[in-house]
Amino acid sequence: MLLLYGAETYGIGLHLLGLFVNIWPLKRQGEPSLPDDPLQYPSVDILIPTYNEPEEIVRTTAVACTLLDYPRDKMNIYILDDGGTVARRNHPDPEKARAAQIRHERLQKLAQEIGVHYMTRDDNVDAKAGNINYALQCLCAADAEKRDVQNFTCINAGIQRTCSDLILILDCDHVPTRDFLKRTVPYFLHDEKLFLVQTPHFFINPSPVEKNLGIHGMVPGENEMFYRRVHLGLDFWNASFFCGSAALMRRCCLAEVGGIQGETITEDAETALELHRRGYRSVYVSRPMVCGLSPETFDAFIVQRTRWAQGMVQIFLLKNPLLAKGLTLTQKLCYLNSCFFWFFGLARIVFFLAPLAYLVFGLRVYNASVIQVIAYAMPHLFGSTLTAHYLYGDVRHTLFSEFFETVQSIYLLPAILSTFKNPRSPRFKVTPKGKHLAADAPSPLGYPFYVMLVLILLGMVAGFNRWTTFPLERDVIIICLFWNVYNLGVILLCLGAAWELHQWRRHHRVVTDEPAELIGGDGRTLSVRIRDLSLGGARLRLAGLIASTIRPGDVLTLRAQDSFQRTYNLAVRILRMDPCDVKGQEECTVGCQWVEEGLQAFTDRVGFIYGDSERWERFWESNSRARLPLGHGYALLLRTGVRRAFHNLSGTVKLLMLYCRRKAEFLWTRGFKRQPKAS
After folding, report:
1. CA-CA distance, 159 to 141, in Å (whole number)?
2. φ, ψ for residue 563 (rounded to 5)?
3. Cα dihedral across residues 623, 628, 634, 638: positive or negative
């Protein structure tokens, strides 16, 4: 009962903290502009830390950085390769050493090809924070030419190496739009105490939870509540913090605290906390200008969230915001809310076990009658649900939050407890990116949900037995059975999320609707609409009669413009043509593949696909649906959970039967049919 009381108190406290943080979200209007004279622009070093991500991901981000609309003599771009360090190239395992050497050589060649810098170091101390800090120290060294070329390899020596005014940090899968610096740098010119301009992390692909449940596009993305609501509230209280990427920082402020902090594994929030303590200010620009990749698999998703949870618990224990000198009271409450949130793993497990404790063992964890629940608990639940729906209804349904937290809690609980036991024990783990699944399969991390499902079903049986055995306790039995049924719906969703769906496409698509033209070799022009784009090709839609003039295999030129009125002429090959009927009009969907190879063709494609922030703004807005009615949201998740859980259970049974059959065949051929040995 004490555990349940603590969990409920935590929920109420977090709810009140959330109301305070988000009571007045700040939507900045009328962003400042750069001066007319480019000589007055501050210089910017762009740092792209990378560890084990595929070369193609790094190439896309680095090429996009070269297209930034900013004077090139004021901008230096660095690939910070922690996967090709001297220590990794000399690894005792020959295969790992060879892989690190190959990566080192390929990224060097890539940097030389596109005209940027390449940097690595001796070892991998302090992970991402150490990688960035090493780069900052090297770039400000008095004599760059005396550095060991193995530790600092500058491919394009023509660019002057000096301490820049600002630092742009981009994860290697975070591709910036052309106008990123023009929309963020001016804030530093108007506020000398500003240390950070943070922008949203906008993801082109759904999270594995959304993909596996098939709810992508039906509801807003899982990260949108933080970047479209919570961060606006933090910005109002001057508590917007560094999120690890898509952020511009003032170098002298970083130097004041010794660079990126590394005492915790969430070095980004820790760094912002230290600089807020010194009276510096931060700004959040709520415009998607960096396109990233969500983890592609459920286990990668859990790795990422475990790191976040452990890091924020570390900050709470080692850097307690309530005791941090220099922070205002409002900043303390904002940082406390950000740390306190990640204790939900403890509360969710208690909420799962509490009704089972009574139904199975008879422990009176909830000593109330139905009338008392209706009089006291229901008004609070109803009021808090309506308030959350009012604040976040267009970016998150209430039950979705319950589900997103429950699906993580079983894995976060041991991570949180181990951090409490030893706050300095967690180690930084890179989130795997660029993984692709060739077939549907159960996630290796999904098996605890089977156990939880069995426990809930046992609780239902025990509850019905208790109903007949203890008639005087039926009020509590009704409450706990209803609670158990609610948990059953959430666990069904978790089972659906833990069944991994395959990812056939090599490149993720950008859904859009833009006018363009197809130009043939004879000069004929066809009007088309671009429906989606990727680095692999495009999908077009055009009238059926017009489509009859082209055939699969034709090579044409796709001419289009972005919102900056830049014109792109991209060669495409028609792969397939699918007739369709849209609102009574015969149309045709055409699948195209990019044809031209080479750096310039790739650069043009990157510029067209990723360079326009207006496209991301439209995509973000279209992905946010109108507020789901509460009842409709619950019904949607219930249908989804039952369907996907059945898919998970049936798929697992089929795999188990296949395994048993193959095992039996193996035993039959190798055991029972084995010929007797000669005497």
Report:
1. 15
2. -70, -15
3. negative
Told to judge if 235 belongs to the known catalytic residues of this protein, a careful annotator would answer no
The token pair that represents 670 in the structure block: 């190798």
Q: Phi/psi of residue 54, each to 5°?
A: -60, 150
Amino acid at 25: P
Classify 322 as helix, strand or coil.
helix
- Residue 318 to residues 204, 313, 366, Cα–Cα distance (Å): 35, 8, 35
Beta bridge partners of 587: 543, 580
Query: Per-residue pLDDT tens for 615-664?
Result: 898 888 776 554 555 556 667 667 776 777 676 677 667 767 776 777 77
Q: Cβ distance 608 to 538 under 8 Å?
A: no
The H-or-E segment that residue 88 falls in is helix 86-89
Reduced to 3 states (helix: H, G, I; strand: E, B; else coil), residue 352 is: helix
Residues 501-543: tens digit of each pLDDT:
766 666 788 888 889 988 887 778 888 889 989 998 999 888 7
Q: Which sign, positive or negative, has the C-alpha torsion 230, 301, 219, 607?
A: positive
Task: Let me know: does 219 contact 632? Beta carbons within 8 Å.
Answer: no
CA distances to 134, 352, 407, 526, 612 from 171, rounded to whole Å, are 16, 37, 26, 39, 19
- The Cα–Cα gap between 608 and 49 comes to 24
Which position among 45, 81, 82, 604 bears the catalytic label?
82
390 Cβ partners below 8 Å, 6+ apart?
Answer: none
Catalytic residue from among 81, 171, 179, 268: 268
Active site residue 123: no
Pairing of strands 166-169, 247-250: antiparallel
CA distance 316 to 338: 9
